[in-house]
DNA sequence: CTGAAAGCGCTTACAG
DNA sequence: CTGAAAGCGCTTACAG
């Protein structure tokens, strides 16, 4: 490929001048600028990003820190949002090939040797061994759905509490009183806030919450399966369940079906996320919508602002949520009505 | 971050020597090697990849060329396989932020300016405007599920014909004779081979193929919906349908359900891909399994071989396929039996 | 407005 | 076995 020297020679100027027109510096005469621009086109010259990065100390690259698999639909849609925001930003996404099984592996050092300008993290555990090091480094970072902050790290999340309250309200208004809650871990912001939303919703509607109605599990389909199995054992079985992910809801529904009952006739189920699959799953899921793509886009936009303004304080961004009613919720005993 | 100069000074050697131990050159005394290695650890030194890449003319980076959205489960699982293969390879994946809407955008030039060592492409159309340029460049490329070849480009795919024949055989053995085929475009290898498999399977079982039984559509859920709607109009409605993607199958099933019929009681449906969702969809899909993750891994492994051996001819790799029978196929009229 | 020169952090002949 | 020097393709004070 043509280098800046080739362009300089061809255009009859110095490499410094070529560099100036590439970078849109004002102190270049119109005539020179035109000639150089033309030569750049003729030679199909494109600056070598590595060389530029070497002197500027950056890479126009955003690294991703992810532990959950891509088959997770939340992750998938997030990536779509991220991709969109990156589109005309000048930044590319690099998927650091992490060897999390290797003890001596350091995610931060990987970022440093790749000169990554910023990191977007999701599916990150509070106690991830790489987290502390990342927060201590001064690599700008935006986390999604995790309330992790640092001098250079902010996060973006959804109105978790309000969304969950809406789901409870919806069920209560349908006439349910035995409403259970299948949740991910409670010891982080997302889990805690959804739990709060559930409790407050129940309280608002003066509904009783037996201890056995709150099941903590993980966000996968298997998590929903395990939790729902326990709920089915109860003598006072719930007539409705609020889950904190769509996958959990799908798992719960499969348990209900397997035991010969129907959704929503016998038990109503609400999911969380409104992923693509909540719509194509049969029956289509009633679920709490988060704007996943827009969360992904905002994460990137915010990150880029942080990268380009050292003094921009890492923000906490909250996106709205709302309930989407589809086919998995109905009045209690709907089958017979 | 510490540079090679810091290490050299601290260890009391030249940068050339440090470079030699980093790169495991043999001509370094044991004593020196030890001291330098220790200093590297002490200083937490990690080579700057951009600088190294600048002199070596490469980046230890693989670019991805993808036009289909990540929400496509085939793409998603492929990425998982790719991620796994990349794990200890020393290469990172870079998602080039493509601006395919911008006419002056050139994917190849983007690759060149990022110094990408190779490209893995999927969801690529034969007539993609960027394709010709990519094939002409000498960037090593592996395509997935597209029979695109070039001097430096090979591809990997599945036993498309054999897999489809198995599906037809399964249905024929169940007693079906009116078997329709919902396919993606026929003018590429994947589509053509599956079509051949269908025709040959039908012939083997001496089954008739009315022209109206072959519906060409696109691989999405919508594609399946449109095609199935047309099949439902037929006076001689098929009792079984082979689809060339799971998403198409899911779309077809939703149409069948909406018209008040049941799967598999009234109409049997077979998918293709055996994606994660074929299992959690209800009813669970009978589908032709392709080893998507292993396809992703092999694509990367092959690509790396191509990158590191200039004379390694771009291969064509074919992975096995097999039918996975689940709940969407049964004897014709199964409902009444 | 233009260009010579130093430098970013590496690798690689080459000389010793 | 070791190191001085040139060079990869850029940018940036700085001098003119």
From TrEMBL, chains A, B:
Keywords: DNA-binding, Repressor, Transcription, Transcription regulation. Coiled coil: none annotated. Residues 2-56 form the HTH lacI-type domain. Transmembrane segments: none annotated. InterPro entries: HTH_LacI, LacI/GalR-like_sensor, Lambda_DNA-bd_dom_sf, Peripla_BP_I. One of its GO terms (molecular function) is DNA-binding transcription factor activity. It comes from the Bacteria. Pfam families: LacI (PF00356), Peripla_BP_3 (PF13377). SUPFAM superfamilies: lambda repressor-like DNA-binding domains (SSF47413), Periplasmic binding protein-like I (SSF53822). This is LacI family transcriptional regulator. The lineage of its organism: Bacteria, Bacillati, Bacillota, Bacilli, Bacillales.
